[in-house]
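Thread title: Can someone regenerate the structure for this chain?

I was given the following input by a collaborator and told the matching structure tokens would be attached. They weren't. Posting the sequence so someone can regenerate them.
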Amino acid sequence: MTRTLADPAVRPLVADAGSPRPRLLPVLVAGVLLAAGVRAFVVESYVVPSYALAPTVQPGDRVLVLKAGARPAAGDLVVVPAQTGSSEGEGSSGIGSGPTARVLGPVAAALGVRAVVGDEVASVASVDGTAVTLAAPRVRSVPVDDVVGTVTFRFWPLDRVGPVAAVPR
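Best answer:
Regenerated them for you:
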């Protein structure tokens, strides 16, 4: 015997068109789009890779970076694209180092493209109208528009959870 939708035992298990119960796929799609939008435009988490900004942040610290309306000030920690801007005493290729650089470097050079790999957390020394001068991990200048966001909160490790203060000058 085959059961049909008219059978009362089957009917409650199937959501009809116009049912007040939301379908799973639209809810999942909306959730993914919302999360992607927040990460792209509002706030994103980053991992601090080195001791360059210790004791304010240390390697392995996970921080939240506010992207929306980021206007850095002297002493702030910011996220900027790695290997961009002018660096004192360093001829930067924009690629970085390691296996990625060995693969991307020749390809980027052949195409005449400046490749950038990743972002880095840096300390702001000063800000003028169009440029931000970074003090650490290396001294360089980047356009204000290249600042991804300002580090606002550390959420890992748990014994140091809290707002991230400006770097003492």
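The two ends are 81 Å apart (CA to CA).
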